[in-house]
């Protein structure tokens, strides 16, 4: 806001904050205003407003409490209620507490420094006292007498059990509160309610991230200890690991396969006149994927592409397909571009489970079959959706 006349604004502020007497004194000392004066006056006014606001809110709270007490005592009066006798006649309030009459009950308004239903306790100012019965999850409130009202508050993570004078601070169960439907999740995995707070835990095989809420899989395969027996390969999975040993198919006749890498087998060259040999997969590769449970589908899991040998013409046509392991229709294999096919998961997979799907790619040169390649894809679905 940019007032047209700063003098007029200051007059108004000074009138509100200081009152007319001081205003005239200040105005006699100088005729106009500096920016600092305007700022100082607005700050004073803000403080005044804040103080008024706090006092008003306190008054409302007190009134609400009294109204609730009145309502609960009124609701207890039945048609056959005995005649009202003075509950305060026995002088139940100790240590200078003021007894307030209710129906069949009384309430003590305690002086500063006292708390409890009969003002029998010292109000807590140091470490909160644990309340007997449910020691970990309830605490005594911190109470203070503000003017004529008694104000109680709880430490963070606790809430007053009621507005009555003998209320205690009860732990807020954040796990229960946020576990309700439609609420955001507090923890990626499990929530443990603790007095005044909560903590998140992760299942075994996962570590808790520095945010204290998220879980991250532990990659056991990078551990310096070799967890898998000799001759097997370690595959990290969500929450665990697997030891795998991909095997080449046994050859027959003049067809044989050899390992060209830990995850690939290659067929020996076919004799010139052997048609059936040429139609057997030229390469078989092994792929291991780890997926979380219930992934949103469709999602591309795997890509298969052709690579021609240097100096030789590559295939000018490719055909992709699924050759095994798709009896339940979880997957679709389709062309992504001229050189690539992709395996797409089209149905949600719920873990824990392990699936295997075999896909293949046939290469053609001028419509004449050249070679076939198979990829065996093993999918480890973790029990959790992270
Ligand atoms: Ca793991």
Automatic annotation (TrEMBL):
Its main location: secreted. One of its GO terms (biological process) is Notch signaling pathway. Keywords: Calcium, Coiled coil, Disulfide bond, EGF-like domain, Extracellular matrix, Glycoprotein, Heparin-binding, Repeat, Secreted, Signal. An adhesion molecule that interacts with extracellular matrix molecules in developing teeth and may play important roles in differentiation and maintenance of odontoblasts as well as in dentin formation. Interacts with heparin, FBLN1, FN1 and DSPP. Preferentially binds dental mesenchyme cells and odontoblasts but not dental epithelial cells or nondental cells. Binding requires a heparan sulfate-containing receptor on the cell surface as well as an integrin. Belongs to the fibulin family. This is Fibulin-7. It comes from Pteropus vampyrus (Large flying fox).
């Amino acid at each position: 806001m940019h007032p047209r006349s700063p003098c007029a604004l200051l007059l108004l502020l000074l009138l509100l904050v200081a009152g007319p007497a001081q205003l005239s004194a200040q105005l006699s000392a100088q005729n106009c205003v500096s920016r600092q004066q305007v700022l100082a006056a607005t700050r004073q006014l803000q403080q005044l407003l804040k103080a008024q606001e706090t006092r008003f809110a306190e008054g409302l709270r007190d009134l609400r409490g009294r109204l609730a007490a009145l309502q609960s005592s009124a609701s207890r009066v039945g048609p056959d209620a005995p005649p009202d006798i003075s509950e305060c006649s026995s002088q139940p309030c100790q240590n200078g507490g003021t007894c307030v009459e209710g129906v069949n009950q009384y309430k003590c308004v305690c002086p500063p420094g006292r708390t409890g239903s009969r003002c029998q306790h010292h109000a807590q100012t140091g470490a909160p006292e644990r309340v007997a019965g449910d020691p970990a999850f309830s605490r005594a409130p911190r109470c203070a007498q503000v003017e004529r009202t008694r104000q109680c508050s709880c430490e963070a993570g606790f809430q007053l059990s009621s507005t009555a004078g003998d209320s205690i601070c009860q732990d807020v169960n954040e796990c229960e509160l946020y576990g309700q439907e439609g609420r955001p999740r507090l923890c990626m995995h499990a929530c443990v309610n603790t007095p005044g707070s909560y903590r998140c835990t992760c299942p075994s095989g996962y570590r808790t991230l520095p945010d204290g809420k998220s879980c991250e899989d532990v990659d056991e395969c990078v551990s310096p200890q070799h967890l898998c027996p000799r001759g097997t390969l370690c595959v990290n999975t969500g929450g665990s690991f697997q030891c795998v040993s991909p095997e080449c198919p046994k050859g027959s006749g003049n067809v044989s396969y050899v390992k060209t890498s830990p995850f690939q087998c290659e067929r020996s060259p076919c004799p010139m006149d052997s048609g059936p040999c040429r139609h057997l997969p030229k390469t078989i590769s092994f792929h291991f994927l780890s997926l979380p449970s219930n992934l949103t589908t469709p999602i591309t899991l795997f890509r298969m592409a052709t690579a021609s040998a240097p100096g030789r013409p590559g295939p000018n046509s490719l055909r992709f397909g699924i050759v095994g392991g798709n009896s339940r229709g979880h997957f679709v294999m389709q062309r992504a571009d001229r050189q690539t096919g992709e395996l797409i998961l089209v149905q949600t997979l719920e873990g824990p489970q392990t699936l295997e799907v075999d896909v293949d790619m046939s290469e053609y040169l001028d419509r004449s079959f050249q070679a076939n390649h198979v990829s065996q894809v093993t999918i480890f679905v973790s029990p959790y959706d992270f």
